[in-house]
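Model: Ready when you are.
Researcher: Fold this.
Model:
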Amino acid sequence: MRQYLLKTLLQIVPVLFLITIIVFLLVHASGDPVSLMLPDTATDEDRQNLSAALGLDRPLLQQYFTFLGNLVQGDFGQSFRYKQDALPIVLDRLPATFELALAAMIVANVIAIPLGILSATKRNSILDVFATGAAVLGKAMPHFWLGIMFILLFSVKLGLFPVSGRGTFAHLVLPALTLGSGIAAEMTRLIRSSMLEILGQDYIRTARSKGLRERIVIYKHAFRNSLIPVVTIMALQISSLISGAIITEAIFAWPGMGQLIVQAVNTRDMAIVQAAVFVFAIVVILSNMLADLLYRVLDPRIKFN
C-alpha cells in the first residue's frame, strides 16, 4: 500500500503542473487588471508604472516561471482588493465551503440511499416511478433556479429560514438542499441500477433460499456490495459540489470560496483566482485518490499495485 500511495502522489505532480499552466493562461486571457485597479483619469504613464510593479510588462513565459517559482513557496501574490497575500484569504474561506459541501453530501445521501433502495426493491411500482421521476427532475433543475425558488418559498413567503449569510444551522439548510439535490438525483439512479444488478446475483438468491429475512438480504448483502460504484460517484461528485458551490454561495451570500471566486473574477483579482482554483484542484485530486483507496478497501479482490 505504501508503494501504491507513493506512486499515486508522484502522478499528481504533472497534473498540478498542467493545472498551473491552464490557470495562468486563462487568468491572463480574461483581461487587463491594471484597467480595473486604476481610475479612468489615470495616464498612460500611471498604467505603465503599475504594469511594471506587477510584472505584467514582462514576456508571458517569464511571468509564468516567476508565478511557478512563487507558487512552490506558497506565494500566489497579493490581492489588490484585500491588500493581503492571496493564499491566506482563500484558506480562510475554505472551512465555510467544506461545511456547505459536507452538509450537501449528507442531504444527498439521506435522500438518495432510501429512494434508491426502495426503487430497486419495488421495481416498476408507483414508488419506483416516483423515485425515478424525482431523480430526473432533480438532475434537470439548475442550482441557481432551485436556490431562488427555495428563497422565495421558504424564506420570503413562509419565513422559515434566513435568506442569506452563515452562522446558525438555519442558515445552512437552504444552501445545503440546493447543492445536495442534484447530487441526490445522480446517486439515486446509480444506487437503483447497482442494487438491481446485485439483487439478480446467485448469492442473493442463495441467501433468500436459506430463509434469511428480507431486511438482512437487502441491507447486509445487497446494499453493502452495491456501495463500490456509489463511493466512486460520491468522490467524482466533489467537482460538482465545487462548481455548484460557486453558484450556491453567490445566491445565498455564503462566505465561502465560491463567493470569493465570483467576486475575484468580477474584479479580475488574479491572485485570488489563481490561489482558489489551485486549492480546489488539490481538493478534487485528493478526493479522487481517497475514493480509489476506499474502492480497493470495499473490494478485497482489487490489489494495491
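Researcher: Now this one.
Model:
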Amino acid sequence: AQVRERLNDLIPSDSDFKAQFTLATLLGRGDASKIARYYLSALEKTYKKEGQPEFVPNDNPNEVNLEHVFPQNAVAEDWSEFIDASGNREDADSWVYRLGNMVLLPSGSNSRLGNKPFKDKAEIFQQSKLALTREVGECATWTPAAIQARQERLAALAVRTWPR
C-alpha cells in the first residue's frame, strides 16, 4: 500500500501523461533521436496491436532513420506555412523537434528526402510499411496545425502504449 501510494505521487495519471505527451519535444541529435525512434516504434506497435512496446524491432540508426517532416534546414519557398517570404522563422524551429513532426523511415528513403517540400516527402511516406508514417503521407498539407493534430493522436496512443 505504501509503495502504491508513493508511486501515485511519482507517476502521472493517464490524463496528465496524455497532456504532457501532447507537448513532447525532442531537441538535438544523439539520445534525442534514439528516444524519438523508440517512441515512434512503440506507438507503431500499439497502433497495429502488435506485441510489447518495450521491444524495438530495429533500433539501428543505419537502417531506420528519424525523418523530420518539416525539415531542420527548411527552404522558405517550400515551407511557407512555417517560414515567411523574408525568411523569418518566428517559432518555426519549435515545430521541427515536436514528436508529431517526426516519422520513421528506412535509411535509404530518408537520405533522398532531405529538405524537400512536403509534396515530395508525402509520396515516400505513403509507401511506408509503417502505418503512422503512411498516415502522414496521406495529409494534404503539413502545417503547424497538422503537427499539433498528429501530436494529439500520438498522445492518445501513448496512453494506450504506456498506461498507468
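Researcher: Key takeaway?
Model: Residues 2-161 form one domain.
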